[in-house]
Amino acid sequence: MSKPTPLSGFPEFLPEQRVVELQVIERLGRTFELHGFANVETRAVEPMDQLLRKGETSKEVYVLRRLQAEGDVDADSAAQFGLHFDLTVPFARYVLENAGKLEFPFRRYQIQKAWRGERPQEGRFREFTQADIDVVAKDELPFHFDVEVARVMAEALSALPLPPLKLRVNNRKLIQGFYAGLGAPDPSAVIRIIDKLDKLPADKVGELLVSEGGLSEDQASRCLQLAEISAADSSFVEQVRVLGVEDDLLETGLAELAAVVEGCRSLNGDRFSVEASLSLARGLDYYTGTVFEIHMEGFEFLKSVGGGGRYDALASDGRTTYPGVGISFGISRTLVPLIHRGLLGSDRKVPSVVMVALADEESRPHSDVVAQRLRARGVPTEVAAAPQKFGKQIRYAERRGIPFVWFPGGDGGADQVKDIRSGEQVDADADAWTPPAEDLVPRIITHTQEELS
Amino acid sequence: MSKPTPLSGFPEFLPEQRVVELQVIERLGRTFELHGFANVETRAVEPMDQLLRKGETSKEVYVLRRLQAEGDVDADSAAQFGLHFDLTVPFARYVLENAGKLEFPFRRYQIQKAWRGERPQEGRFREFTQADIDVVAKDELPFHFDVEVARVMAEALSALPLPPLKLRVNNRKLIQGFYAGLGAPDPSAVIRIIDKLDKLPADKVGELLVSEGGLSEDQASRCLQLAEISAADSSFVEQVRVLGVEDDLLETGLAELAAVVEGCRSLNGDRFSVEASLSLARGLDYYTGTVFEIHMEGFEFLKSVGGGGRYDALASDGRTTYPGVGISFGISRTLVPLIHRGLLGSDRKVPSVVMVALADEESRPHSDVVAQRLRARGVPTEVAAAPQKFGKQIRYAERRGIPFVWFPGGDGGADQVKDIRSGEQVDADADAWTPPAEDLVPRIITHTQEELS
To answer: From CA A281, how far away is CA A172, in angstroms rounded?
Structure first.
């Protein structure tokens, strides 16, 4: 077999890069669990009729076929299955399937791969990992859960070693109420047109609001003014009021959006911020209130790196409706570009903190015992692969990023441990010595684009 | 949408069951990392030509096709991809692809799903999770790594909350040397016939050894005697010597097998044992020395729940050969039957240790602050969903298995926390109170089959 080449759209990491992804997944999971979110993992496949319900993504599905079913497609039930393209469709199915066994309101997080048969491009993959949190209830889901999922995701994101992330929030009731109160003949049409603001200049969108949205020049202008409003706190409410539109749904939307933004405010900082962003619509029809989008500073070309919102009918079996609110965060979407550009990495190719040196092959059992004593106290340790000269063994550790080399003492002499970064070497007891806490797991290393250029 | 039904062969867990799987994965990973094994995750798909190299599984592969490529299969490159059916084929490809960037000997662990289009049956799934450890080197891999992977997997398995597991070990050099030293015309044919001992009675296998293996009655009898030998220590060596066969390869095999069994001996106990088992052959041609198989007591119908061995050519690019040794453990294979029979579970449907009660909706911000103070010290906490009567709120916690309910004090009164299992209620400070360590994460609960019947 000749050397294989990477598969476009199916990113993989080297061990020292995978460390970053593992730590990100671990930190996200820890925060979600601190807030009582239970982990769920769903199978990779769903029946095709489930996957095709979201019209716009139907073409991106990978369909499964058993090889032995070749030429006999109809007889093979697997022909009706495809790989899931997100974690929302499988979760909605899971909720319906297990409704009798779940306790509602049900908080769940899910960190899994999904697949889309898209043309791969940077930040768009055919296989990718994402982290979703959702709260789903039976019949009714109180609004305070919108604030909760926003705050939980905000807390989780603010702990990640990434460029500054921004959680943009808006509310469909707010914009729909505004357009209705303004007298727009078709508020949904206005939403669709306003949604083009990230692709078209404002004056062009203004023209469309008149020609296609059926608005007057003044109405169109006020819609554009609304879309320009953004704020890191509830001060946006006053800015909206200045536009002079009155509507009950608008009022509900303003109050809800203010609650979400204020609920996340304490998490605003250098690495994370929340913003009421009144141009945000998220085209998808099923959002009915709060909508979210996550952006990463300096990586605007990725567009959003996450999103979500409130859907009053996440799932329904005809009799019972299950409303939900949730946010999805793109782990591959953010990590792959950062890691492949060298902006994010770790200082170690192996988990080992210590490598126990080997005087000769005969003393391997002794080195093994030393290693096992260190492991017994939670210190990841490996033994040198071969009894080379100590200088070579140290370089072996160095190449892997292992910070400490341990020299078992011979003939009653004390063991010694050497920090190969500083060169410092001291007597040590394998039953007592502990590395500095910050050396216990590989360290994440970040660079800015400026540093590398 | 009507209520969906489970998909045969694609097992899923309820949240309180998933907890068990998560903890098993976490414990395995922790042990592997303590021994310096680095985590790797490979993409789910491989080119079909890679997947079809292992002849016997070729029919079980799920082939991927993009939905939009319908009727245009040849033009779609994804038509050449399938889901991996194990973690060895992808790992071999990963090693070749990244050989220049990896440090050898390379210890890696991988815990991922794999897929096979088999007829589903109990313990055989179409989608399943497995945990693999392997050490791979360039050109040469010293034998001591055989002992190491056995010991690492033994240590990992002995820490799992499962029925007793047995690691059976044998060595291809030992049996091949024995058959050759015995004068068998075709030692490989003897291996294939002896391998049928788990399906056929010994006398029938003896007949085949004569009729198809070309052995004399006496030779056949000694082969059967060899296959009967098993031991928890190196005492098997003497039992083999009694059979009076002499051969250099046999000697090497005996020494290697003794080293592996002795290396794991300290881990023998109630829940785990290692056994030299001289009938074990593992049909696969690529094993060249040590072979492993894992069995679970009381679940013999599952056959093996893991296996592996030494392959002197895990991967090769034509110039360089990468020998490896590894063991794979079936997480779904063991957990799904245990969990679905009620033999294994957890005591909580949510990660929350504490539920903060809610006096009325107005005091939600106060309850939120209490919860956040507990979380700040690592205590998973949720706030009651609605300000029902306290009795109802306690039952809400009870249904989820949350052990503690927290009552925020009003008007200067102290907070109180109630252990709803014992009923004990005490004054508590959210900045200081900590639950007992054993309540911090959900507890695994095991039952024996006798208890349930």
So the answer is: 7
Residues B78 and A127: their CA atoms lie apart, in Å, by: 12
Q: In degrees to the nearest 10, what's the CA dihedral of A300, A306, A310, A316? A: 140
Cβ contact B167:B308 at 8 Å = no
Kindly state whether A42 is in contact with chain B, defined as any CB-CB distance less than 8 angstroms. yes
Are B18 and A41 a contacting pair at CB < 8 A? yes
pLDDT digits (tens, 9 = 90+) for B197-248: 988 999 999 999 999 999 999 999 999 999 999 999 999 999 999 999 999 9
Phi, psi of B399, rounded to the nearest 5 degrees = -60, -30
Kindly provide the ipTM of the predicted complex, given to two decimals: 0.95
Residues 6+ apart with CB under 8 A from B377: B431, B434
Residue B339 is which amino acid? Answer: I
Helix (H) or strand (E) holding B181, with range, is helix B172-182
Q: How many Å apart are CA A419 and CA A384, to the nearest integer? A: 16
**Whether B62 and A64 lie within 8 Å, measured CB to CB:** yes
DSSP letter for A279, please: T
For B73-122, how does the pLDDT look when each residue is reduced to its tens digit (9 = 90+)? 444 444 589 999 999 999 999 999 999 999 999 999 999 999 998 888 87
SS3 label, residue A116: coil
Question: What is the b/e burial string over B290-303, where b = at least 16 CB atoms within 10 angstroms of the residue's CB?
Answer: bbbbbbbeebeebe
The Cα B270–Cα A435 span in angstroms is: 33
Partner B, chain A 76-135, Cβ-Cβ below 8 Å: 78, 81-83, 93-94, 96-99, 101-103, 105, 107-108, 113, 115, 117, 126-127
Q: What is the pTM of this model?
A: 0.95
Q: What is the DSSP letter of A413?
A: P
Q: How is residue A121 annotated by DSSP?
A: B
Q: How far apart are the CA of A352 and the nearest CA of chain B, in angstroms?
A: 5
Indicate yes or no: CB of B96 within 8 angstroms of CB of A1: yes
Q: Are A133 and A28 in contact (CB under 8 A)?
A: no
Chain B environment of A400 (Cβ under 8 Å) = 103
- The residue written with tokens 């093994």 in the block is A368
In terms of Cα–Cα distance, which of A255, A230, A231 is closest to A174? A255
- Angstrom CA distances, A288 to A143, A171, A354, B347, stand at 12, 8, 54, 36
B2 contacts in A (CB within 8 Å)?
317-318
Summarize pLDDT for A120-163 with one digit per residue, the tens. Answer: 887 889 999 999 999 999 999 999 999 999 999 999 999 999 99
To the nearest whole angstrom, how far is the Cα of B33 from the nearest Cα of chain A?
Answer: 6
Please state, in angstroms and rounded to a whole number, the distance separating the CA atoms of residues B113 and B239: 41
Given a contact cutoff of 8 angstroms between Cβ atoms, the answer to whether A237 and A174 are in contact is no
